[in-house]
Amino acid sequence: AGREVYLCHDADTKGQKANHKIEKLLRQVAGAVYTIVLPYEIGEKHGKDISDFFLDGYDDEDLQKLMDQAREAGPPVQAERGVVDVRVMDSLGTEHFGERMRMRVTVTGKRNPPYMLPKDVTFTCTMDAGAKCKFCPMMDAMGNMNRLVTSQDDVLLSMMASTEQQVRNILRERNYIQKCSKIEITVNEYQPVEELYVRPSIDSKITSQDSGDYTSRRVYSTAAHDTKTNSTIELIGTVHPSPKNQMNEFMAWEAGEVDTDIDKFEMTPEIGERLKIFRSSDPLYGLDVIADDLSANITKIYGRTQMHVFMDLVYHSVLGFNFLGERITKGWLDGLVLGDTRTGKSWVAEQLRHHYGLGEMITCESASFAGIVGGVQQFSTNVWDVSWGTIPLNDRRAVIMDEVSGMTTEEIAQMSSIRSSGEAQITKIKSERTLARTRLLWIGNPRNAKMTDFTFGVYAIKPLVGNNEDVARFDMVMSVMSDEVDPEAINTQDHRQVPHVYTSELCNALLLWCWSRTPDQVTWARGAEQSVLDYALKLAHEYQEDPPLVQGANVRVKLARIAAAIAARLFSTDRKYQTIIVRRSHVEAAYEFLCTLYSTERFGYLQVSNELKNDIIIAEGHVAEAEAWAWSNPNAAKLMKTRPSFRRSDLEDVLNVSREEANGIVNKMWDWRMIRRDGPDNIPTQTFQTILREVIT
After folding, report:
1. Measuring CA to CA, how many Å separate 300 from each of 271, 511, 528?
2. 495 DSSP assignment
3. pLDDT above 70 (res 204)
4. Number of helices and strands in the chain (H, E)
5. Among 14, 160, 260, 422, which one is least packed by beta carbons within 10 Å?
6. Is 132 exposed, middle or buried (0-12, 13-18, 19+ CB in 10 A)?
7. CA distance 447 to 406
8. Could you report the per-residue pLDDT of 348-400, keeping only the tens digit for each?
9. Strands 431-435, 423-427: parallel, antiparallel or unpaired by DSSP?
10. Which positions ≥6 away from 26 have C-beta within 8 Å?
């Protein structure tokens, strides 16, 4: 290994073939391999060799000259066999063929079980096959030969997916043993070979000039049998043309799990001092200052400060924290930016991702559910295994989901578990689970509509997302509309100049600090937890649960997540820069930021909530009338209390009344605010449901 090797077989056809075969075998381990050209004509048989060279009067100086000529004609000497660092995309080319390559990759899937291929093989022979024996190396080995198939031997590629007889023939031919019935082949030891599916490591830093390498490929690894999917590993190997179809195949003989950039991040006093630039005693003002810098110098999208802050907070949310003596395992944020096209939503998210050098962006219009979450892949007949998608592969990181309207509401509903638990599960013909604690920034246009089609932006959420439980999983939602920013403020060269102090290097370091904090490294200052409860109660009084963005049962946790994200974004920490400290000012800022989003005239969540409160007051004023009607119409009451909704035609059938009379009943119930409409369906309100429960039908 690592030596310079000079080949000098006979000057005939067979000798030249031997030179070629030996060179092919040795170049995988030797530092350099050269072929000496003897000063003889290449004959068909019985060519002269190195012995004839000296017998003909040549000496060692002449041999040295031939060696020098071989060096000049051959590849450069490698004193030590080096390893070339390559990207996955680079490994698909031919420029590094024959070189040892190192790739850092994330394993998206693997084929189970692995191959079992020979490692230690013994050949035995009776040596009585006649003339064949004269040309067989078993004769020189006295009928007994032992050979090792190393983990770097490309013959393993030939053996994969082969029958036992085919494997034995490959081993025999590899050792130049004649084909006959006298040979017995015994495999003493096997070695595992894994078929892995990999993509570039998730911690590969991306920039605006390099959007990242997202090439996927297959790798055969002889290093282990238990490589974990959704893990980041470092491979050392090389590429070979497949012996079966000549495709480029990467064969790795070293594979080890490595720490990601989050794991490797180590806070030092020097880094901590530099990150103090993010601190602010007034949290909302501090967030706006950072947003203005990024807007003016990075995204070039003006007049969208709230949107910059919103995306920033999703990125800087923490993994988990302890709150009121309870471990909150889901501390990361799940946020939706909903609005018209051409408002800069996707552009801002993409530019922030480049600036931070972290995170991944996918376009849901062109992505399948399997690509986003994961799915079962069929490798061959009756062989299935799980391949993970973008969200679980970015565990502890952030994913921007653009063009959410490209997903169906059914597909969004399928993501309920992964969003709430931080764990991806595939339960089909093959079952598997993995962690998926991924910050999700959802970006989308209204489904089959424009924002101007809705009186309030809040009404566009349910058609896009679907079920109430899926809407409730968003920690915060905001809308952006094309006419909210004055065109003159955008189309001008006289934008306010903002010094660029929040550089990519600083933002990347702060983000790694946030992402590497454990739940025990997030603490609450005195009074902060009580402040969360107080503001959560205010939110529950101010906003109704339709849509369920604010729910009295869990709004305190949402508020705590946002407050922790604000504290992390503003580098609120202890003297050793290890712990995130959430203060009352951060909780107050979280409350005010949510109110700013939800109380805007165009989004209208506060206005809708106030209208619902007013409906409750109106309904309570008509309780006596509704009770009297329900008791006098028991059949209708039975229909309404046994179904979640009803239609006018149902009243016609049950009460045997005309269309006009049924319309009159619906109109009366609507005037009393005893029902609400959802398309053609009439849904009894809580006030009316209380009345119906008391009616004996």
Report:
1. 28, 22, 36
2. P
3. no
4. 29, 24
5. 14
6. middle
7. 9
8. 999 999 999 999 999 998 888 888 998 877 655 555 677 889 999 999 999 99
9. antiparallel
10. 5, 33
